Here is the input.
Amino acid sequence: MRIYDIILKKRNAEELTDEEIKFFVRESLEGSIKDYQITALLMAICFNGMTERETATLTMEMAKSGDMVDLSGIDGYTVDKHSTGGVGDKTTLIVTPIVASLGGKVAKMSGRGLGHTGGTVDKLESIEGFRTSLSSEDFLNQVNKIGLCVVGQSGDLAPADKKFYALRNDTATVDSIPLIASSIMSKKLAAGSKGIVLDVKTGSGAFMKSVEESEALAKAMVGIGKAAGRDTVAVITNMDIPLGNAVGNSLEVIEAVETLKGNGCEDLTAVCIELAADMLTLVTGKDKEKCIEMAKGAIADGSALNKLKEMVREQGGDPEWISDTSLFPKAEYNYEIKAETDGYIGYMDAEKIGIASLMLGAGRNTKEDELDFSAGIILKAKTGDGISKGDTVAVLYSDDESKFASAVQKFNDAMSFSDFPIKKQPLIYSVIR
Ligand code: URA
Here is the structure.
């Protein structure tokens, strides 16, 4: 078999065999296929796509290129969630304790933030002492003990994806549905859970800017999950506007805790109940309505909040910080953005707000950047809200006063005002099973 022939075949829009795809993944990692040949094939895939079978085979081979986490030692139904990334997306901190408090076994590996999107691991590390790196034995023991453990990615998960993704980033081959779907799902399959709920974001702060693209990606990922024998559901949710009111690590943990106490804002609570209910349909086999009721009940009776406290205690943090969020350190400086006219918030670009938060110290431009955990933004008004001149639209926080000038400029650039009421956008567009 020759990589030249495989590239030529895909360049001519022909379908690759399973053997050809396996050869490509294996030999790319072995080094006999050169980076320029890998990128030539990735570019041909960008132009000519892949069938469902080709995409499923590529994903499985990428998953099997490294460690496949074995969760068979966990007693019960293992369920994972994944978000395609967004601004203010703290759903993992809310959804996973809800599901674990109702019997789901959540053994979750999460990522760090990069660019305008945040990462769950960074948010959790804003709780002093919280350990996001555990041995696999401790990871499994904790899930068996309390039903929930969230750690950073460890081991050698899907190294083929790592190699391809780095090349895709440098060669304008990221935005291809089969390549994105196989990249995300290879890591999810390797992470081992039986059930997978995918939160596919759509809008200005998301990877996929249109609902149509997001649905196509969701369908591709659900197809891969099914082909691999995993119960997979995808939900298309709005990321045109940041989710919730807080953007930034400890600010988001505090908002997550408030949501688990029943004081969450409407959009964040609704998306979390949807995702938790989808996970619970897989765990319990009960219908969606019943699962929604169960998820709401776990917030109302405090069991989900207690589950988060248990996880914090088990992983080395002080659960008192969850009971009393005033214990989180506060940023030294803040700056209030005021409305300059009466009217409505006409538009709020989620990506730009994510970048403004990054500029305040809450995010990273490169993997090596240090975070300011208390930096970020609290939104006091969002798209569609009525405002009067002088109202506070947002408060920006940072420990470094010199960061405000550029962050304020970026925030103002993200906002536009309207004299007329704005139609609210849907929060949840569709659910794909
Ligand atoms: N996230 C991933 O993990 N992979 C992609 O290809 C795009 C987003």
About this structure: The chain has three domains: 3-49, 79-323, 330-418.
